[in-house]
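F.,

This is the one I mentioned.
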């Protein structure tokens, strides 16, 4: 009786995407666009109010907590902040061992120690590092530990939530290359969440661009980056530094911030910031249309 309903916010709406086995799909957009919400919903770390998430054809949104625990091994997450995602009171070996214990993967203590050493080696660290605590490592090393912990249960899909944005630029490339090597060697699938199209361009075969909880462009990363069709993708891409001095890429500076999802703009949600908006953009929501095989764009002008 002391509360009243204050409306609801749709953080993600009408989004449909697939990630094939062994594929890396990038999820790109400014903060507040719903990409992290979507990534967490895929792993059921937050519950959705509608829609389905299918893993190998099975709708995981309908699984009981017990059934979900049994499947969790197959999908893992790597978090943005490698420091807060590791328990400071546990040694690195204990943190990784915890993941093995939850799924009863190596009950034999000697085999468990060997396995932890192997996992640390696979991410470029040494087995001796298992005895140390997280604060004894640099940010890049801590992110490697987070990756080793995710790999411990031999997942098939990893949702990477901005895994390099908290790292120094010089370290970012090393972690991206590590993720790329692991994907190739283990056939992993990634849903790679990032605000940085340059990183996604390097790692992902396909990209999904989101704005205010909706997909605005989707396609092969190479094609989307070569010829972006949605004005928002064009603006994001124009901010990516280009090495080629002859490049004609012009910087498009977007005015304002991403509007609040509590009160989204009418028509096309991007119209208040769109440099080429027309009158109908203010009233008509553009549908996500397939404009070429495998290429989807939500813009009246595409
Ligand atoms: Fe811009 Fe209109 Fe296209 Fe939206 S539909 S991106 S406002 S041109």
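My design for it:
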């Amino acid at each position: 009786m002391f509360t009243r309903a204050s409306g609801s916010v749709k953080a993600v709406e009408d989004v449909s995407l697939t990630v094939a086995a062994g594929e890396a799909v990038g999820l790109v957009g400014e903060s507040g666009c719903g990409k992290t919400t979507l990534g967490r919903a895929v792993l059921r770390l937050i519950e959705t109010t509608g829609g389905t998430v299918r893993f190998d054809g099975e709708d995981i949104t309908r699984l009981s907590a017990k059934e979900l625990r049994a499947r969790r091994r197959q999908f893992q997450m790597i978090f943005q902040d490698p420091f807060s995602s590791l328990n400071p009171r546990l040694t690195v070996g204990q943190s990784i061992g915890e993941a093995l214990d939850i799924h009863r993967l190596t009950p034999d203590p000697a085999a468990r120690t060997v396995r932890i050493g192997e996992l640390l080696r696979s991410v470029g660290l040494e087995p001796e590092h298992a005895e140390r605590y997280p604060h004894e490592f640099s940010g890049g090393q801590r992110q490697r530990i987070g990756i080793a912990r995710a790999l411990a249960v031999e997942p098939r899909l990893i949702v990477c939530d901005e895994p390099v944005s908290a790292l120094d630029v010089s370290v970012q490339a090393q972690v991206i290359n590590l993720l790329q090597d692991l994907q190739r060697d283990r056939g992993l699938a990634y849903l790679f969440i990032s605000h940085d199209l340059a990183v996604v361009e390097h790692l992902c075969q396909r990209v999904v661009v989101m704005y205010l909880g909706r997909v605005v462009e989707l396609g092969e990363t190479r094609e989307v980056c070569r010829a972006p069709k949605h004005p928002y993708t064009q603006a994001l891409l124009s901010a990516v530094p280009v090495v080629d001095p002859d490049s004609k890429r012009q910087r498009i500076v977007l005015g304002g911030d991403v509007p609040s999802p509590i009160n989204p703009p009418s028509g096309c949600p991007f119209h208040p910031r769109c440099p080429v908006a027309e009158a109908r953009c203010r009233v008509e929501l553009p549908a996500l249309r397939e404009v070429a095989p495998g290429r989807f764009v939500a813009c009246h002008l595409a």
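The chain has nine helices and ten strands.

Talk soon.
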